[in-house]
């Protein structure tokens, strides 16, 4: 396939581009100005630049957006997060819809933040949205693909859980304190964490690009979520370190504000019902095996 990827320099995007290239697909990286044949021009605030170079792609994977954990959430940062996801996705979808030869499929990043803080409730793609900033952004983010869907493009919403990699993301930030023996649960430790290894995250995307009968939301998570306490214990065991230190919830809130409740203390127990039904075979379903593979 000819596949265009926005956010191709990010953690998931770079791994996806590498996997697609290894499988023989032709990859076009979406950048602000395309100076070579291997790129297409795109800007979140403007949509497709040079639309002719987008013609003929079989699939578009849209991963670009402001990092939600990059800095403390104030009004300006929350506006940047929303605009980069909602408006950027809408501009892209409108541009794809106007092409003479639009892609067959648009796989657009979303997040399990859609479900909000739900305690021990088991959540699949049929579960309703939660309440709060992240669920609202995720709903608007997914709705922004409507121009593409109306144009007959198959749209898949990739509701990512916590993507684990030693090269970036949540796991990479945890490694130093855990290696120093300063790791442990956050808050009560009873909140559920829905995770997926980077290799399975990109493998699932490629699988879904070819699954013509799948559209709408797909939870990109392992079938076996774990509690925060079990995650901390497992990571400490893999690193051969103790997990005695813990971060009280008030300390997390003092350091990160609203973001602490949404990203660290919220409990989201998500299962990948659609992905399993679509026939995807996970490389790693158990956390310890995944961590040992990722950390080698």
Fill in the keyword field for this structure.
single chain; eight-stranded mixed beta sheet; two-stranded parallel sheet; 39% helix; alpha/beta; 11 helices; 296 residues; globular
Biggest sheet strand line-up = 4-3-2-1-5-6-8-12
- What are the low-pLDDT stretches, counting only 5+ consecutive residues below 50? none
Overall shape: globular
Number of helices: 11
Order of helices and strands: EHEEEEHEEHHEEHEEHEEHHHEHH
Structural class: alpha/beta
Gap between N and C termini: 32 Å
Helix content: 25-40%
The biggest beta sheet, please? Answer: 8 strands, mixed
Q: Mind explaining what this structure looks like?
A:
- This protein is globular.
- Helix 2 packs parallel to helix 3 (133-143), helix 7 (228-239) crosses helix 11 (287-295) and helix 8 crosses helix 9.
- It is 39% helix and 19% strand.
- It has 11 helices and 14 strands.
- It starts with a strand and ends with a helix.
- It has 296 residues and is α/β, with parallel strands linked by helices.
- Strand 1 (2-6), helix 1 and strand 2 (26-31) form a beta-alpha-beta unit.
- Strands 4-3-2-1-5-6-8-12 form an 8-stranded mixed sheet, sandwiched between helices. Strands 7-14 form a two-stranded parallel sheet. Strands 9-11 form a two-stranded parallel ribbon.
